[in-house]
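User: Hello! I'm new to structural biology and keep hearing that structure can be predicted from sequence alone. Could you demonstrate with threonine-phosphate decarboxylase? Please show me the input and the output so I can see what each looks like.

Assistant: Of course. The first part below is the input, the amino acid sequence of threonine-phosphate decarboxylase. The second part is the output, the predicted structure written as tokens.
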Amino acid sequence: MEWPEHGGQPESVRQQLAPAAETVYDFSANLNPLGPPAWLHSAVHAELSSINVYPEPSYEAARQALAEMMGVKLEEVLLTNGGAEAIFLAARLFAGGSALIVQPTFSEYEQACRHYGVGVRHINMKEFDSWSLPLTEIRAHIIETDVVFLCRPNNPTGTLAAQSEMMELLIAAEASETTVVVDEAFIDFLSESDSLVSWIYTHPSLIVLRSLTKVFTVPGLRIGGVAAAPVMIEKLAAGQMPWSVNALASKITPALCADEAFLGRTKAWLQAELPRMKRELEALHFNVSPSVVNFYLLQDKLAPQGTDELLTFLFQSGIAARHTHTFPGLNGSHIRFALRSLEENDELLRVLHAWRRKQC
């Protein structure tokens, strides 16, 4: 079986497995099921005339909106073509150097480092340690490292490194003149106080990446950003292609950033649905990662070696989930599920009940 590289590609799996169910529910992409916001389609239509002209090259309106959303200044923000461009711009600063990546995590950090000839060392979080930040190992290697890439909340575990741990990491990084890149692509599912963006004022070696893709369910628009000290933003901007963000994306960004009501509904949904699903899954004897966001890792406690068999059973039953063969440190041992609507989550539970009966 050739599983797709990323989530959100159920059709590529359908061609190989031919599910018996007519409807396939996609749990493989960790996008907000409440999105996009109801107003977005009409707003995009209203902005279609903007495709006739080049975008305003400084993207000032979009950058100002991002800055206000994050609580920083205009000169401390760079607008990017999704989170992916932000990652590659950060890696470019350390071309030919060395990076430490805390695994398992998003594969684009390593992809970007390899692209720019940055040597990569992996340090793995462990399930038995609740996927916590391996600070002892990080400190042991940070002196020989130019940059640390860390996802917070982490993809695929959904875990959030404590701010006390992040402070320890930054102190160690500053002592060795190491830059820390923290990807906050999923932070908008949580309280703003969980973000480290305000730390750029006291830690100039900190680069914070953000994305509107996940929380607003707009992966096709490609809207991301970076928050950092102005001198760092200038270095990042120097490597950015002209007009890398399209006109539609830049025009829509201010309205997205201002939609606090949508973010409020999202947080309320998460606070209700995530604990419910954890209880139900653990009652079925599945191990569930201590996620705080809209996705989680799952492993069958009764058949931990049968993950691929479970993945196949799920898809043939109409559930597309994300394999973990491409996550170093997991190597296919778990399955990542997005948290979906109550109705979709109940369908997943129904299928997992059928799996459990099949195993007995």
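User: So the tokens describe the shape?

Assistant: Right, they're a compact way of writing down the 3D structure. Reading them back into a model, for example: Residues 10-36+261-359 form a domain with the Aspartate Aminotransferase, domain 1 fold (CATH 3.90.1150.10).
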